[in-house]
User: What shape does this take?
Amino acid sequence: MSDLLLAVGFGLVVASVLALASVGLSLQFGITNYVNFAYGDFMAVGAYIAWTVNTGPWHLNIWVALVIGSLSVGILAVLLNQFLLAPFARRFQKLFYILIVTFGLSLILLNIVSSIWGDEVQRYSMPDENPFHLGPFLFTGQQLIVIGIAIVLMVLIHLMLTTTRLGKSMRAMSDNTTLAMTSGIDTRRITTFTWFLSGTLAGLAGTVLGITQASITPGSGETFLFVIFAAVIVGGIGSIYGAIIGAVIIGLATEISALFIEASYKLDIAFVILILALLFRPNGLFARAGKA
Amino acid sequence: MSPLVYYLFTLAFFVFAYCILTWGLNLQFGEGGILNFAYIAFVAIGAYITGVTSMGSPIAGQAGSGQTYILGWALPFPIPLILGGLAAAAFALLVAVIAFRRLRTDYLAIVLISLSLVLYDVINNFVPLFNGADGLSNVPEPMADVLGLDANSFVPFFTGVALIVALIMWFLMSRITRSPAGRTLRAIRDDPEAAAALGKNVFRHQLTAMLIGSFYAGVGGGLIIEFSGAFNTSAWLPGETFLIFAAAIVGGIGNNKGMILGALIVPVLFTQLPKFLPDVPGHPALILNVAAMAIGVLLIFVLWFRPQGIIPERRRLSKLPMATPTSAATASAISTPPMVGQDTQ
Assistant: This one.
């Protein structure tokens, strides 16, 4: 029983990382209607920028580094959209051109990261902490902060989408871009902002992944990508609340499964769930018409 | 045999093998519109199965001693090669049955890319399957003992074998793409709804393209393991899928001749040229990183400036004046109704 509770505790940590990542991916998908296969590498870029800020000459606190790393990826995402992705999306009607471009972009980013920072496993400089009991669970302070960040950001994004003009425009555009445009919504500005938000969340997720796994490698974001896809598809692609629920399901399932199977296969459970979801509920728990 | 001649034979072998690989991908992606980002996983399955069906059981003194793997048959060439192709096709059938129905292009690409990552993980970690991360080695050179070939004469011999296999595959593929089924496949690629409305079974045609394309992937992979004698997970990193995609796109998707050109230019340029460049001191992997980036950049540039590739797809249009595809996106914008898309050669 105590093993199970420990697994649930760490599952919540994984779910927090996943929730940040899958909401970022899902937001952008909802607006632009194509999947960003370079998302895992966005995460890696954020993780490494934060690492340089954290361990380089500035030697800033990890949480300050986290903010700087995330915002840099947000800016990178806006630039990539402006000069690469948006022109392709405008020019080609067929979906597969833009998908190949994001696929190619992931190769480019991965290799830029590994030629700048090398392939060795890196770690953030953080104080070692002893885990402490919180109710039935066992957490370190850093893990609790990660869970806290995820909860606060999810609430903020929810409030933004439901109460602000910007968020309502995003939802409108996600439902029907043409209709949104004819209603006077500046769709280009919304798209730019969405990429900024998506990139920032990717950078954030990449860094907290590095914090919770205590290691960063150039490929860590990419290998995590299918877990994110699983969360997004289980929840229903393009749906923000679905992405959060999907993240919790996948996070708990992978960690609890590690009690029964060898730990090196635990992430593969996410793929099994992805397949089951496709077989029995291909539109996700929170299906959105016309997205699948 | 001088090292240069040896090297040129090796190069020629890889061009033939890559021709087979790009034809298979072209049938799936160029003709069928299936974005198979897991293509290299099917190549790997072909290679592994060819390996374990030709190496014999892993006992001391045999080729596979010190390794653990399934099957362990010692079948004569070319049976392992065909089994490799069939295994890849069987795996494709499994994937297609689960994922093909009701899935949009990008969903399918997500499933496929996830599949390749998971398969990579499992093959790397689960040693009893294909000897884990070390992979298979000491795969016997096919027919070398029968013909009394040594390490020197095997290379030109097997390059010749690869040429013959490639010619057979070329013949079959040109028959497939010219057939009515090939035409239907292109119609589905250009407009699945229209094709379905005209009574074409979209699922069945895409499934066929997936199976045949994967068979090509498996045979290509089988040839590679038989030639190099070893295969492990470092041989099928995701970057390899790009290499084949780039070859197909540069050559001109939807055109089998273009694939030959692509297979000649892209893999040779991006895998061989870096070997001759001096290492940058302190950054041993930098050249390889830059080569990989260059593949990605090339892919994006070709898609933007010449999406139809070097040899564009032949416009299989009737002489009716109804459709004038614009120059941009030619490869995809041939939007005539499929029934009109008749061969006018």
